[in-house]
Amino acid sequence: MSFTTLSDGARIALDNMADFAWSLGSPSLRLGVTGLSRAGKTVFITALIHNLTHGGRLPMFEPWRAGRLLGAEIRPQLHPDVPTFDYRGHVRKLTDARVWPESTRQISELRLTIAYESATFLGRSLGRGKLDLDIVDYPGEWLLDLPLLSKDFRTFSRETLERAREPRRNGIATDWLVHSAGIDPLGPADDETAGRLHELFSAYLGAARGGSLALSMVPPGRFLMPGDLAGSPALTFAPLDLPETGEAPRDSLWAMMESRFEAYKDVVVRPFFRTHFARLDRQVVLVDVLAALNGGREALLDLEVALGEILACFRPGHASWLGQILTRRIDRILFAATKADHLHHASHDRLELILRRLTDRAIARASFSGAEVDVKALAAVRATREATIRRNGESLPCILGVPQEGELFDDHLYDGKEEIALFPGDLPDNPQALFRAPEAEEQPLDALRFLRFRPPPVEVTAEGVSLSLPHIRLDRALDFLLGDRLA
Residue 324: phi, psi to the nearest 5? Predict the structure, then answer.
């Protein structure tokens, strides 16, 4: 799937050369971090920076294990026109208030300069090495917009309406579908009509993404986080039930909506692709598999479609020094199932298997293009501990933690202070069981239950030194993403 025109390609190459010149040719790596809302992007980046700058415990990160990691510090970022990732503010929320930072609502950047000793004798003789790591944080919903670049308004409308009429979505889409059915696309263009359709359509998207449904396919992504474009014509449109053939009459509602759809691609989607997405070297896609499990089988199937759409947007391939200057390619992609601390470690392998099942076909496409792809279960910040309790003569592997205020379980509303032991259920040995029709499931999804827990208190040594944020497999993720560049 191609998203670039010749002019786009030329501008991307010029921007890459400008970045290379600004960095004076020093080694750099642009790491994109994304995921659908509440997948843990902000927490992942904050924990990554905190562990690297505070000498965190990273035993499976080879440069740390070998004693070659000399330190890391935050430096001025590459692009002054992009908001800076608020690392210090997020750390304060995690460690002082013990609350999770707000979800990513816009793109942001941060540059981390990592000092290391080379793994080779020749490299060490030339002095210590340095890598500028440019971290780019952006909402995963924006990725779901990229396929729109290859679609026209009729295709977008047909696919969106078909999805909304599915049994899982029909109930939350009723207001929009009923109102839309009474609108004639061939009627005159009218701002009030367009605004009302957009309002109802956006409400449907919000309901699909939020609440207990946890659905993932919700393009256009900016409708859920419009920012300073709220109310602009480029963000005030909705799908229409169009005839299969023919063109939009001049000055019709159809023509207005089609024009705004094209403006959305030109004003919102294409600049994001050209300026940020097409200039990444490596990518992390964080996936809240547990939320989808809570949402049921349909939420899992919806997530599978979304992950396929997301990976189809990437530009995978082998990295080269010339490619870094002209046409960057993503040569490593990590899919990470987050919040692994909400499960006992005995289920972590099964969590990875479920994510692999969700991404099988998409991974095959990317690997064929030369990119390395890995799947891991992790918790960027570990909020729970593990324990075993006995009930009715049976040992149950449980997790201990403090549920967030407002969490509800078995009709009990938690206040954010009470620590509990929770048995969240066992994930199936065969992930395929979760994707079968309900009557064929080996284990019903409602047997699984996951709560949100508060961040843990910061551990302090006997000497009064605050330790880095605890994690599960963040070191393995770092080794896959950065290890070869710190050799």
Answer: -65, -30
Q: Which two tokens stand for residue 16?
A: 């890459």
d(CA 279, CA 19): 10
Going by C-beta distance under 8 Å and a sequence separation of 6 or more, which residues neighbour residue 73?
Answer: 53, 112, 113
- Backbone phi, then psi, for 483, in 5-degree steps? -50, -45
DSSP secondary structure string for all residues of 246-292: --PPTTBHHHHHHHHHHHHIIIIIHHHHHHTGGG-SEEEEEE-HHHH
State the chain's mean pLDDT as an integer: 87
Average pLDDT score over residue span 45-61: 95
Q: Do the beta carbons of residue 340 and residue 288 sit within 8 Å?
A: no
The SS3 assignment for 318 reads coil
Question: pLDDT tens digits for 308-326?
Answer: 888 877 777 665 544 455 5
Q: For residue 43, give the H/E element and its range.
A: helix 41-53
Cα–Cα distance between 487 and 481 in angstroms, integer? 12
> How crowded is residue 46: how many other Cβ atoms within 10 Å of its Cβ?
26
**pLDDT tens-digit series, residues 263-292:** 999 999 998 888 888 889 999 999 999 988
How far is Cα of residue 334 from the mean position of the Cα atoms in its chain? 11
Q: pTM of the entire structure?
A: 0.86
Which value, in Å, is the radius of gyration of the alpha carbons in the chain?
24
Cβ-based burial of 314 (10 A; exposed 0-12, middle 13-18, buried ≥19): buried
CB 372 within 8 A of CB 417: no
User: For residue range 421-479, what is the model confidence (pLDDT) as tens digits?
Assistant: 998 888 888 888 888 766 544 454 556 678 899 999 988 777 767 789 999 999 999 99
* Token pair recorded at residue 339: 């919040």
Which has the higher per-residue pLDDT, 210 or 389? 389
Q: What's the CA gap between 271 and 266, in Å, rounded?
A: 7
How many Cβ atoms sit within 10 Å of the Cβ of residue 415? 11
